Amino acid sequence: MSLTASWQFWALVAAAFAALTAIFAKVGISDIDSDLATFIRTCVIIVVLGALLTAMGKWRAPQTIPIKTWVFLTLSGLATGASWLAYFRALKLGDAARVAPLDKLSIVLVAIFGVLFLGEQLSAMNWVGVALIATGAVLLAVF
Question: With 0-12 CB in 10 A as exposed, 13-18 as middle and 19+ as buried, what is 100?
Answer without folding.
Answer: buried
